[in-house]
## 1
Amino acid sequence: MTEQSLRIRGTGWLSALGRALGPYVAAVVASFAAAGLVLALMGFNVPKAYATILFTSFRSANGIIQTLIKFVPLVLQALAFTIPFKAGKFNIGGEGQLIAGAIGAAAVGIVFAGLPAFLLLPLVLLGGMLAGALWILLPAWLLYRFRINEILTTVLMNFVAFELIDYIATNVWPDPAAGHPTTIPIGAGGYLPLLVQQPPLHAGLVLAILIAAAVYVYTDHTSAGYELIATGANERAARVYGINVRNLFFLSLLLGGAIAGLSGAIEVAGVQHRLIAGIQSNFLLLGLIIGLIAKGNHAAVPFVAFFIAVLEVGASAMQRTLMIPGEMVFIVEAFILLFVLLSDVLRRR
Amino acid sequence: MENSQFVQFASLVMLAIVPYVLASQGTMLAGQTGLFIVSQEGIMLVGASIGFLGAFFSGSLLIGLLVAALSGVLFGLALAYFTTTLKLDQFVIGLAIFFLGLGLSNLMFKLAIGVTLQPPIIPTLKPVAIPILSQIPILGPIVFHQNLLVYFSILLSLFLTYFLYYTSWGLSLRAVGENPKAADSLGVSVVRSRYVTSMLAGALMALAGAYLPMVYTGSFTDGIVNGRGWISIALTFFGGWSPQLIFVGSLFFAGVEILALRSQVLGVGLPHQFLRMIPYLATIFIMLLTYKRVRNPAFLGLNYDRESRTSV
């Protein structure tokens, strides 16, 4: 091959990337501009606010590690949504499954607290995945058997989970010293090992990256994953072709539930080392935003998740130092999503 | 004694139907033109936040309700624009609008009130007794000694039943959700029908949200809607997209909510967390019982493209 043809291929690749990223960059700029206008009108220092949002993650080792810790549940929650989304189904129950996973992990970690790490840690993580899958089993089965809308059933199970975690943390294994519903800690063998000691960064990061890569290979480079995408693109055509779409819906939801459950187990084994009511934070909503911004593209999900993690870490810093409510950043994220969706319309024309 | 307990329970149920009736009739109305809204939870939060702030700063609950309804109209307008004019996916846009509502409701409250230990309180909606009718034994205190939004919910349900099934406007509206191409060819504007119902739906959902601080808590918290928006979607399916059945369903869901609350107070041996799960589990159970009966508008959730040759 001549050097010239390689270079042409290279620019082709670059311009394709540019075309793919263009709408995203435009959406981010437009959202920040809109939010900046509002902030300026309210008399806040806009450049300082933006510098805080965008650069807190990169100014210190602590910032980087905070961002990576936040990245783990966000990317997993996004995948819990995007896997069924690829097949055309909506799992809006990621936080319920996260809580169930956290409960499963904590239960294993407390009951078998004496086991050595090489046994307990895998059991804790497995317990979380199973519990997450179990939490979506009812909605998935209702869809499989009766075609009952999965959006509603998965959402409603979230509210059931909020009560269950409160019950377990106050009645089953309560820590009487804590002022908030909290359980006693799990056995030390169930802790995720640390990649960095100070400030602590747990090995859940490696798990999350491995799972994101595995999901990408599954949906984009295997025939089973292609069936998933084909079903999402045209259910009827997929069925005529001979794909068992009902099984596919069921299994994709279960896989999503297991991954959401794992995100709960990682919060327990890596961050809290116990069960705490409110452990779900707002990871579900951010996960949905990430999945939708990435349009279910599994090569993009980890990068979008990292970007949102940067914004979130910046948002809490901004709230602390500049007294601007963190919700401002959540609205910016919702706007980014809307602008990304709008770019589809422009491209259609 | 038994009688008065029943009257007390039933009048609490009537009080609790309002958010369900308003949000579900709004969902139903938009659904009749094929627009499936999933932003209820977010729009209700905005209604609760703006309704509270409007009432707090103006000192008038009525003004609070009006600004809440207005904000709902804007959200309905946005939904209609993105789905009907730009033809973007209804679920995805619905979720995006839900996020926006969630963020905005909290932001507005924090900016206007700030973070306080003792949040400000607004007065609650007072019952207005209807002369003569409220004197009827049992029925009087249950139905005719309520606040204005309870009456509004009842009248709205009656009006919608009449409008959708006994007027030609209602028939054209339903045609849009069943077969937009046919409706379009007969001169019914699909776009205008969807815009109008979407804005009305937004207003009703925001009113449903504004009702919560005005009757239940007196203040705004981010958990104030607590799944009622999602339940009202299930309720709309349960009611088969017909206003009269949605009203009956609201009685049932409000009844479950009040029962779960009362059994917490009375203590029935079960931990209160399990009692609080009941409304959500009951909703799933009801979906299971009624899935066969339900017939959705044929074009529900789909966008209409006038220039497309295939109709579905």
## 2
Amino acid sequence: MKCDRREFLKWSAALTAASVVGFELSLPENLQAVDVDKWIKSVCRYCGAGCGLYIGVKGGKVVAVKGDDKNWNRGYICVKGSYLPKILDAPDRLKYPMVREGGKWKRITWEEAMNLMVSKFAEAIKKYGPHSVGFYGSGQSYSEESYLANKLFKGALGTNNIDGNPRLCMASAAVGYVTSFGKDEPMGSYDDIYYADCFFIIGSNMSEAHPVIFRLIMEQKRKRKVKIIVADPRKTLTVRNADLHLDFIPGMDLYILNAMAHVIVKEKLYNKDFIDKHVVFKKLGPDNKPQKVNFEEYVKFLEEYTPELAEQKSGCPKEKIIQAARWFATSKATMSFWCMGLNQRTKGVWVNNLVNNLHLLTGQICRPGATPFSLTGQPNACGGIRDVGLLSHLLPYGRLVANDQHRAEMEEFWGLPKGRIHPKPGLTAVELFRKFAEGEIKCLWVVCTNPGQSLPNLEKYRKGMAREDTFLVVSEAYHPSRTSELADLVLPAALWCEKEGTYGQSERRYQYLPQVIKPLGEAKSDFEVILTFARKLLTALGRADEAKRLFPYKTTEDVWNEMRACSRNTVYNFWGMTRARLIKEHGMLWPVPTEDYPAPGTLRRYTAKYGDPLVKKYDPKAEDISFYGNPADGNRAVIWLRPAVGPAEPADKDYPFILTTGRLIEHWHTGTMTMKVPELMRAAPRAFVEINPKDAQKLGIKTGDMVRITSRRGSIVLPAKVVDIPRPGVVFVPFHYPDKLINILVTDAFDPMSKQPEFKISAVRIEKA
Amino acid sequence: MFYIGVLIDIEGEEAEKALSSLSFLKIYGKKENQLLGVIELKDLQEWKAVEEALTEIKGFLGLSILSSFQDNSDTS
């Protein structure tokens, strides 16, 4: 058999695929092996799903990827993941540090860059105090990097002005979990997909944003005829696979969720036994403080939320709401998924609570297949930001800045003088950039994220970032990005498999990513850069002893071991996840309290019966279920009475359409990586605006026409795509494109509890340009 | 060029026959109702056409990507 290069690569792909799913293939005689020197176990760089994969290396270059069949994704990856090799050697990779001088970029050495940065930060701290500097991190950084940055700013410098981009994507889910269950993070895992009979997907286009998870759901639909309910104002690919579509006016889903609870109560589909044992009811009192109420008051509260009212307010037919409530309550096990559609809202926490309420009301929780589950946009937003505590109100592993005991614990653990950690939460993402724009923050370090494109009401904050009298440092793999173009100093960052560290994904699964190849040019890992900066800055502030004592690390494993110890006496306890175990295993889910605790760890939390090892520790009397993260309420979860409230900026006479933004399967976030892949760019080359055919007809707009979209904050012109995807009155624009900054139009109103902005709903008008 | 290793879920002989005749897909193996194949692609514009072509085949149930190989000589 003739085997040219094309045939050889085809066979390589086939053999590799066969090995992933256990197919036996006979090799052609002249084909000895697949076309790589070695396969190295790792994790995908993109979304929060956290697909395990192997990286194929040949001659020091990444040439292939294949799914990890022993990880949760069972060897499946998505199209975006299959193109990962191409992000590494894109022509605009930043290869050395550069400083802006006289409006031009000048190459400098790492030593010059570090010295400049240290002198600017030290000068600001000496002159204006520690709150004059800030750090904006990322759910894409490795956990060890974020832990170091947190220790430097909150611990060593004594400022809480350190926040991360998960504030823009999942803060509402985190606060939703904390207010409902006492502690953050889902109690279930992807394993529940195999047991659920009903999937309730709301505010998530899983088939495009989390395709591998959705693939597992679709597999269950084929095999077991499970029910899929999708609530979404757009007829997405996810909706097209649903058994029931709840279509609604954006922002009015609180009516639908309360109406579902109304139906469940009215038809007596709730689980009284579960409620009696494990639930308390609360509402906000007149002083805005939580107040306990009883089941009867909850029932009374729900009375007004009839399916008829929900239909009137949301536009979703009442029959569909009733059907959804029945399926949710009566299935053997119901699993909910949600993402930005719920989180990026001014009532994001409340709407999260309402989904959690449905699970608590029906007892669809803490057993296989029954769980609420928030999806994550970034690969390490859970492990690296929420768990590590790299948000301005958090300390590591569930501790809070505002809690005296938690600050004292961290001061002791880190070896800091008492009172070093400031008692007041710092500035959150939007507030941080507002203060930077106002000049109150003098120096800001942005690492591994692109706020110059991703913040809402963007023009205001971009002007602030471009100020001459402040100092903006951006650590980035690519340059220019829409943020690095505004910086004073850019630092080249090693990317993905050019460095090592840990990711923690949506289901509490921690995974180790090894360094596979050398960083490009002079790029360095952010771990090395943060560590060097910490030591130099403290020395410049006359605290050389502290620099040595607080930052003694030689490797990322040294930091990982400190993190394990820091988690040990918390409900996150992952002491048993040694680096060696993470290298060997295919991800582990905390809690993993001991080094001999079996892999993969804890698939279901808050239930002793299904394996949570911490139930007995925190609630010795519990027979099975205990929401031990919430001892203040007797280890019970909370059903919240949350009134239905619409968005901050509903459509009106002057701005009669609702603009919603989102993702395409081809691109990821602000496109800094995926837009370096020609194949992906050719597939989705430019931004567009989706308009419903009924609206388009009224306005005389055809596909391809240029359309001006105007909000109270700005205006943009985009080609129209007339398609029956958004409901009438709604227009959709993908937010990936750096040349069309749709976030200029988006409101920066945010949830008062989570401080997460309402990216999903802004009032606009549209007209032919 | 990219070579994408895929697992295809099917129902019935006809689907297998129809899939075997597709120019962009080469079938390497079969186990029960699953085919193992490789899709050859120049870019994702083609990928969309591939997905559409597959979806139109009666008995095609779903596709999973398992591996991807990049031709180093590809300069696109």
